[in-house]
Amino acid sequence: MEKAVNLLKNAQKVVVLTGAGISAESGIPTFRGKDGLWKKFRAEDLATPEAFQKNPSLVWQWYQYRQELILKCQPNPAHKTIALMEQYFKDNFSLITQNVDNLHQRAGSKRVIEFHGNIFKTRCTKCNKQFLYGEYENTPLPRCPNCNGLLRPNVVWFGESLDPNILYKAFTLSSETDLFFAIGTSGVVYPAASLPEIAKSSKAKVIEVNIEKTPISYIADEILLGKAGEILPKLWDNFINEK
Ligand code: OAD
What we know:
This protein has 10 helices and 9 strands.
């Protein structure tokens, strides 16, 4: 912990990458691990363009189930600490999340790079227009208010490419930062998993926060093992009190 505080004290620029683990303490299941979503559901049936083409209502059922679950959850102290980090480091702070749950924004983070989209946004498969949750009728098969085309969740599915602008931004930020945090991510899904590698091979120090070791641990300068909602507020308190 002391080493991590010192790394934070010496940092001019900070990048944080988060994954499903940061929202676990809010009650949102992660994807991998023993109670992970991908243990109960098949990604091929629910999170691919082919699945949506074959059975759009099944895919919508899965996303609407998750929307409802997330709406019942609240941001936890880890999300709140990251919002404080943004306030403190201002433009020298960037948050990249693989999560689609909107909890960072609800905790007060203003600039969030959503690597895999957002479950509360949709886009039309016909006219490509985007809509926020509440701007369209969330029926079993939601339709576009503009052209009546079929709406789809505005998330990245397996087999789909990421928005090249987002990818470029994330790669650039990771290669230019002094300090990179990987928080609550298993580090196995690329290209997100390459961001700590890019940071490390540039000039950054890497701090990992996770309840267990991951492939990121091999390159991490400091591994803080434990729950993000407990570790991050402690780290931040120490930093603020010592600086
Ligand atoms: P995973 O479910 O793969 O990994 C979650 C990580 O969080 C694991 O390494 C856990 O050990 C860790 N973890 C669990 N609880 C934690 C806690 N309280 N504090 C800290 N760490 C904790 O989730 P991601 O790495 O986010 O993609 O998965 C990456 C992508 O795979 C997701 O964005 C999603 C999924 O398929 C798409 O949907 C495109």
